[in-house]
Amino acid sequence: MTRQQVLDLYFMEARARVIELGAFLDRVDRADGPSDFRLNALKAALTELSGDQPHRAEKVLLSLSDPTVEPIAQAPGKGAVGAWPGTSPTLFP
Question: How many structural domains comprise the chain?
Fold first, then answer.
């Protein structure tokens, strides 16, 4: 496909997702209480999108992923949280 065809086909979907992300961040800003590692991880991932380098999707995924290779003895929770908490052994340091 040409660049124009890609824009014609996918722009409106991408536009909606960006607006939805802005609305999510507005809700987080209006909410009371402390933040946690997930917001920082999301903001770090967003910086990957603003660049002009290739492989942005891969870089976003890696910025949200656990980079360790050694398995842990026990998971700190029952479900995935979508971002790596860093070196902290708990999900919500």
Answer: 2
Tracing tokens 């009371």 back to the chain, one arrives at 32
Decide if 92 contacts 36 (C-beta within 8 A). yes
* Same structural domain, 51 and 27: no
Whether residues 27 and 40 share a domain: the answer is no
Which band of pLDDT confidence, cut at 50, 70 and 90, is reported for residue 20? very high
Give Cβ neighbours of residue 77 (< 8 Å, ≥ 6 apart): 91
| Residue tagged 């933040």 (tokens) | 35
**Domain membership of residue 59 as a residue range:** 34-63
In a domain, 15, yes or no: yes
| Phi, psi angles (nearest 5°) of residue 84 | -85, 130
Note the pLDDT tens digit of each residue in 21-32.
999 999 999 999
pTM: 0.79
CA distance 4 to 1: 8
